[in-house]
Design goal:
The chain has about 220 residues and is mainly alpha-helical. It contains eleven helices and no strands. The mean pLDDT is about 90.
Amino acid sequence: MKNSDNKGEAPITEEMLASLRERIKPYLTDKRYLHTLAVEKEVRALGSIYLSDSIEKLSAAALLHDITKRLSVQEQLDLCREFGIPADPDDAKYSAKLFHAKTAAAAAQRDFPEFALPEVISGIRWHTTGRAGMSTFEALVYLADYIEETRTFEDCVRLREYFYSGLSDCRSDGDREALLCKTMIMSFDMTVKNLIDEAALVDRDTVEARNYYLKMSKNASVRKV
């Protein structure tokens, strides 16, 4: 899981983030706003463990990740057309919530250009489905969205407990990387199972993300033998 080194970027400051927390309010319901702040809090905690030099960028991605979530399916499709995002209307019937990650990434570049750094946009784009070859940055935004403290769904609670109980046993960077990998696998297993139980479509990116981390975990285990 690698991250690009984007030297020469204008830095995101805490003052900019304080302003952003206010600017996103019109895009979100009250409940979604509280969730968004909780995701930011969680991703900053995760960032302090894995990407201490990217805390501000992680915060920006968290604050912007759901800015199109409240839109209707038709509004999502309209945005896809506006931004040139490939979208099948038939897919929208079965997996409408997957569209918001794509449209939020595009809307963030349009409406909040000062935060439109490559890592921030990719973190927004892949926070729902994941993808094969995810960067650590993308994984932290994804995981923060899943385990933030206001999530009360059984799977969210289980995953949060699994990660933080495992973290207490980590003694090295390698241990922490292995824990993140295993936590990501567990999250995708949960997601796929729930989608199957609901007779819902399973996004190809989610399957590929799960298989990517599974291979990474198995390869790491082989190297230790």
